[in-house]
Write a structure and sequence with these properties.
The chain folds into two domains: about 170 residues, 3-Layer(aba) Sandwich (Rossmann fold); about 150 residues, Rossmann fold. Helices cover about 45% and strands about 15% of the residues. The strands form two sheets. A four-stranded parallel beta sheet has the order 2-1-3-4, with helices on both faces. Strands 6-5-7-8 form a four-stranded parallel beta sheet, with helices on both faces. Helix 1 crosses helix 2 and helix 6 packs antiparallel against helix 11. The longest helix has 27 residues. The two termini are about 20 Å apart.
Length: about 350
């Protein structure tokens, strides 16, 4: 019997923390028209003429801070562990491949391996809990572009969002409980940011997104594929699991790039507001990532913690991501099997 194929796809990472490899990664990442959704000529001038030359050395220094001499990139390490452990759970009837949207291992090479093994079908799981055109949408588009050139195209299905997946939520909640949330003054759910224009583009009705200040806090048919609305819903569901009252947590967005308006509130502004209110200890979740990476291990653990201390706070404690937790691998297995 022909085996079933599974393709796990995460964002990507430089091959090393060297300036040249970081520049190569940034170039591929930012030249994606779904990531930097501006006219092609403007994008090329901005990325190749400004961002990559000047941001490359700065980013390389940060990557060196999280890079392990033993395991390399934390994002790649945990993604590989997820692939290996999922393969073990699924057994010989499945073939699980891992790819990165940018750099190595490439989506094209992973799909080619599945093709050569003549799998009966392929289930694509972009490893982003909340759907966004710049992440999940980009992965799905790339897969379809590659497979569209095959002479024989197998059945292909996509999981475009799992923001409310019970297994995922339980692992984040389990990790949070280790820190006794009740002992912290405030809980922050910090998600990766997106430009507001990308949120409005994803509103197929053209009548809902950002039309009201609280449009993302209500989740329903009108905004079911909105990244911000899904993020707010993830936070709400996690807060319920941890018995955190609404007044004790805040949803915000990090990793802003450029001067155009991004989804608010920004995490840095939230830290300022909380410190002004006398908050001293913050427990921070980052549920947009299924594996710890630069955005969690450096941006939160180092930058936000130091920023908050400079404002008079005492502690920003990161709740670790899903990584290689067995319950997360079980949740992936259920996604594959449609349970």
């Amino acid at each position: 019997m022909r085996k079933q194929g599974v393709l796990l796809v995460n964002l990507g990472t430089p091959d090393s923390p060297s300036v040249s490899d970081v520049r190569k990664y940034l170039d591929e990442f930012l030249m994606d028209e779904r990531v930097l959704d501006i006219p092609a000529v403007n994008r090329t001038l901005l990325v190749k003429g400004v961002i990559v030359p000047f941001r490359g050395p700065k980013s390389a220094k940060i990557y060196k801070e999280v890079w392990s001499t033993e395991t390399g990139s934390p994002l790649l390490y945990y993604s590989q562990k997820q692939q290996e452990l999922l393969q073990e759970r699924l057994g010989n009837d499945y073939i699980v491949e891992l790819a990165m949207r940018y750099q190595s291992p490439s989506i094209e090479s992973a799909l080619e391996r599945l093709k050569k093994k003549q799998v009966a079908n392929i289930k694509v799981i972009p490893l982003f809990p909340q759907y966004a055109s710049a992440s999940t949408g980009s992965v799905n588009q790339k897969v379809m572009e590659i497979v569209s050139k095959w002479q024989t195209i197998p059945d292909i299905s996509f999981i475009s969002s799992f923001h409310d997946n019970e297994g995922m939520l339980e692992v984040f909640a389990q990790n949070g409980r280790k820190y006794n949330p009740e002992n912290y003054d405030h809980i922050v759910f910090s998600f990766h940011g997106l430009p507001e224009r990308q949120l409005t583009k994803a509103d197929d009705t053209g009548k809902y997104c950002l039309k009201a200040p609280d449009c993302c806090s209500r989740f329903g048919d009108a905004n079911r594929m909105c990244y911000s609305a899904q993020s707010h819903d993830t936070a709400r569901l996690l807060a319920q699991k941890l018995n955190i009252p609404k007044e004790k947590y805040t949803v915000c967005f990090q990793s802003r790039l450029g001067n155009s308006p991004w989804k608010k509130p920004y995490t840095t502004d939230v830290l300022k507001d909380l410190s002004a209110k006398g908050i001293k200890r913050i427990l921070m979740f980052s549920p947009a990532f299924v594996a710890d990476c630069l955005e969690t291990l450096y941006e939160i653990v180092v930058e936000y913690h130091e920023e908050f201390k400079a404002l008079g706070g005492e502690k920003v404690q990161l709740v670790e991501s899903l990584n290689d937790d067995p319950k997360w691998i079980e949740a992936l297995e259920k996604m594959v099997k449609g349970n």
